[in-house]
Amino acid sequence: MGKYHDLAEKIVENVGGKENINSLTHCITRLRFKLKDESKANDDVLKNMDGVVTIMHSAGQYQVVIGNHVGQVYEDVVDMTGLGGESSEPEEVSGNLFNRLIDVISGIFQPFLGALSAGGMIKGLNALLVAAGVLTDQSGTYIVLNAIGDAIFQFLPIAVAVAAAKKFKVNQYVGLVIGGALCYPAIQLSAIAVEGAKPLYTLFAGSLFESPVYMTFMGLPFVANNYTSSVIPSILIVWLASKLQRPLRKVIPEVIQNFFVPFFLLLIALPVGFLVIGPIITILTNMLATGFDSLLAFSPILFGLIVGFFWQVLVMFGLHWSLIPIAILQLGTMGYSTALTGMFGASFAQTAAVAAMYFRLKDPKEKALVVPAVISGICGVTEPAIYGLSLPKKKPFIYSMVGGAVSGAFMTAMSVRSYVMGGLGVFGIPSYINQQNGDTSGAIYSVIAIVIASVIGFALTFFFWKDDTVVAEVKEGQKAVEVRKEIVMAPVTGKMMPLSTAKDQAFAQGALGKGVVIHPTVGEVVAPFDGTVMTMFPTKHAIGLVSDNGLELLIHIGLDTVQLDGKYFESFVEQGAKVKRGDKLVTFDIKAIEAAGYSVETPVIVTNTADYLDIIESDKQDDICNNDELLTVLA
Questions:
Q1: Quick one: which of 361, 444, 541, 590 has the fewest CB in 10 Å?
Q2: CA 128, CA 120: separation in Å to the nearest integer?
Q3: 379 catalytic, yes or no?
Q4: Which of 26, 69, 320, 556 is an active site residue?
């Protein structure tokens, strides 16, 4: 019996019982029933039920909105009724490219965050035992512990590809093969460009894009790269496979699809990945190496600032290799290096930002990730902190970048030198001790850099970030479920229509975000929530608001009404003003605007749609008033 069994039982009972259900699927927040007779469903009971956000009648479906634990409720409903099957609806993620990328990355990492954190802690324990003299790095115990702790990081592309396959609805064993191929020893640059080996030829020789070629694939240059511990290549290749999957299923007979769809997916996606992604990463790495080298010569302080700020992003994309050759060259020619000193504080800024999140997080599951992430981060392994906590929340990740930048500038301003390619985290401090003359000033400065990075990362997160999760109690299983829920009231009185009916295609296609269209019957716009006027256009035809919880809303009065240059509009607030729900914002003359040849249909759009799990329209069919609920926003 699942922990949501009681909730599932009540839902089935109040949709008219099992015998009233034709079919059942689910998407990211909703149970989607097709009922034989919707009049048998108890709307009011379901709306007020603990664990149910609201209900909707849409597209011939009876939708029960649950929230982010809908999958578990769905499983219990299926167990109870024997209905349903796995949802085939892809998860829709809108918003700009950066927001979509963050959503995909954080969603992919969620299933194996526990294993990732455990690996980081084991690596830290192993390093601590070596530092304390209990083990040596040549002992069997060290080797076994290192294999256990480092395995998920060394073969991270495999874990990422499997999880990405599930998210993009590709066979997970196809994902496993994609990740495994990226980690295959013969593919790695170190295995191909062996000592003394000469390239067959060099692409773009003498330019920023110079790329040695050690082998070819079907006559095409194969620019190898080290994909171990990388993230983005796995995601991109699995995404490509997901795009190929549908057309392949259309042309391959169903009786042989189980064999030939994976055959062609692997045969197309992986070579394209190797022949396109590999060269792109190599070219970007070479360009960054040249740029960093020039920047270091121009201004070491600016170099440290930039490296410290972007280090975590470079690692995510596998571009941090651009600094390794510079560091190796410096160590070989001068006996010390300054190329990597700027990045030293970045992991501590990240760790401190996540530590500060502990005091702000409301979700017990998220909070439980903090302690292992901090332990791992102190040892220099920040993947659990980044992918499990700070990156999905965005602002703490940016605050950690600021801490890394300031500490990086400090390290290079103090001319700190590393004398070996040392350990990670606190185990990297001895790297800054000059063993020849016993000078420990670099190690002391590195400790100061840790303090600088940690204080900035912690303080910015603690004081300027807040978790707006609202706790909604669900009694099933005696556990609470965290749901962030915000209500947007109607800012305009009129007839509400789906956004897809908008005459402007940019709005209708959802390019600016999700929302609705209101055809006004009263020429007045009021604040739909407590918040701040983010933008008041000079022409007064559009207003941008941000709620106290961070929801960004655009209210666009009419189509092409910008050409009226403010005529027939009057504003009552200025940009930056604080407003309360119901405050008058703008009035407009409907008849005069229509007489001038303009439509007054008013799109109401959540412009930061990508920050939310779901945006649910009111199911009210008649006219909507400015004191009615318009949108329910979940995260």
A1: 444
A2: 12
A3: no
A4: 556
